[in-house]
Structure formats: structure tokens, C-alpha cells
Amino acid sequence: MEDLLTGFEMTQQQALDLIALGKDLKANPAKYAQALAGKSVVTLFEKQSLRTRVTFDIGVNKLGGHAVYLDQANGAMGSREDVKDFAANISRWADCIVARVYDHKTLVEMQQYSSVPVINSLCDLYHPCQGMADFLTISQNYDDLTKVKLAYVGDGNNVTHSLFIAGAILGATVTAVCPIGHSPDAQIIKQAQDIAEKTGATINVTNSIEDIKGYDVVYGDTWLSMGDDTPLEQIKAKFMPYQINQALLDSTGIKHILHCQPAHRGLDITSEVMDGPASLIFDQAENRMHIQNAIMLTLVN
Ligand code: CP
Ligand code: NVA
After folding, report:
1. What is the arithmetic mean of pLDDT over 150-172?
2. How confident is the model at residue 75 (pLDDT cuts 50, 70, 90)?
3. Is the pTM of this model over 0.90?
């Protein structure tokens, strides 16, 4: 594995090794305090971020390395200069590029012209660091990932795709419950299902909350992803039945909640459950840093 653009790059063993390393980084930070000493990581952002920006910056620092944040105010990629020149220049100085972009094709081009590893920190189609942080979080609460049933509820998007990919590789059951017209990408579902056939995973899409009775974990995300300028009022009524709330926990028997955040309290999730005992949401946010450090150590060294 040289880059992490989609998640499909990972074998099952590599995904398990990343989770194990992420746990060790969390438990034994002192052991890794110089693990990226002398190394520099450029984090490029075309879109907004709280968790990703802060976890990569602080995460690199915790490994003894140096992070450089670049937003679009200092020259937008493809506008001030070409993506390929961004990649070729940065890879002469840095040891790794982390990029959050609108269009997945930008990452593919970046990887083509970069001589250092490229990590996708969210694009229109994938959010692999998120998906791996989520399975790290689940594995801290469930011993056997192949027995875990995870239900993603809401808009079929980049996060859904990354849960499907990580879940398929790790042998889990992942069902996305989406309103009609908001299903995940058919091609990515098919690719994840092909992997699932080999690992024993189950990857499904449905419109009905009824189908996730007896599941272990429910997962939410924003109804409108960055770059989607659909007015909230246009979709709110359609998405309200897919809100993560106490009634959903009661009707399904689900015990744990994840949400990648940013959360929209009162819309995609209620405060009652986000702040309640079922929530693993802030562990999950913390784990972004540990899994990303595991990914950087694996790719850079
Ligand atoms: N979950 C996540 O990626 O959060 P940010 O958009 O704040 O980075
Ligand atoms: N699906 C969301 C995830 C945010 C972390 C988005 O792309 O905006």
C-alpha cells in the first residue's frame, strides 16, 4: 500500500494492522514520540474542516514531525497553478501529502505526479480516514468485527462509501438506510459487494428502518455534504424519518451511535442521543487522530 485514496488499496490484513497500530498509538503515545522525527506532512484543504485539520496537525506533532497547512487562500489548486505542479513541488519538500478536495480526480492526478504518499482526507466519493477511525472505534467496543452489524442512516455519500469499503474488507455487516433517491453510488456498492463475497461481509442498501432491527451500531452524517447547495427546506421532510433519535434506538434495539460530525443537532441527530449513554461520537472523533497516525506511519516509513 503506497497511498490511501479510496480504501480499496487495503488488504484485510493491512486494515487489521492499521487498527492494531492505531490502538497501540493511543495506548502508548510515548513509544511513538519520535516516529516521524525530521518528516514533514503537507495538509491541503479545498473544503472546510475542524476534525481533519486539527487531528492531522496535532497528530503529526505527537509523532515528532511537522505539519504544514495549506488552504486555498494561498492559491487555489488548478487556478494559481496546475494540480500536477502542486504535487510535483510539494513532494520535493514534504514526506507525505494529505488532501481534502472536491473532486476525486484531483487526488488521482495528485498521486500521479507526487513522489510521496498521498492520503485522501475527504473527497466527493470517499472518506477513508473516517471509515477506518470508525472501525477502530467499533473494535474498541466489539471483539469480533465479523459479527458486528452497522447501520448507516441518512444520505448515501462519501462516508457511506468508506464504511462499505472498510466494512467489506473487515468482514462486517454494513447496511445503508437511505431515503429514495439518496442511495450510495451503485458502482462503489458493487465493488464493496465483490470484496464482501470473499471476506464474508454483507453490504446492503435499503429505504426502510425496519430492516435494521437488532443491529449493534447506528451511524449518522449530515444530510447535505460540503459542495451540495440543495436548500435544507427542500429535503428536510424527506430526511426527518431518518433522524438518529431515541425512538430509532427503541424501535431497533441498537446500543451504540456513531456520527462522523459535523452534527446538526435537531436535524440528522438529536441532542438527547448525541449526549446520551449510547454515543461513541467523541471517542470516534479522537480516534481520527490515532488511525491517521497509524496510516501515516505505515505509508511514510
Ligand atoms: N468528520 C470530519 O471529517 O470532520 P471535519 O469535516 O470537521 O474535518
Ligand atoms: N458527508 C460529509 C462528511 C463531512 C465530514 C461531507 O462530505 O460534507
Report:
1. 98
2. confident
3. yes
Assign 3-class secondary structure to 252-292: HCCCEEEECCCCCECCCECHHHHCCCCECHHHHHHHHHHHH
Give yes or no for residue 51 CB within 6 A of ligand 1. Answer: yes
Q: Coil, strand, or helix at residue 174?
A: strand
Which ligand has an atom closest to residue 225 CA?
2
- Looking at 51, 100, 161, 290, which residue is catalytic? 100
Q: Is 111 a catalytic residue?
A: no
Q: Looking at the CA of residue 158, tell me the nearest atom of ligand 2.
A: 1
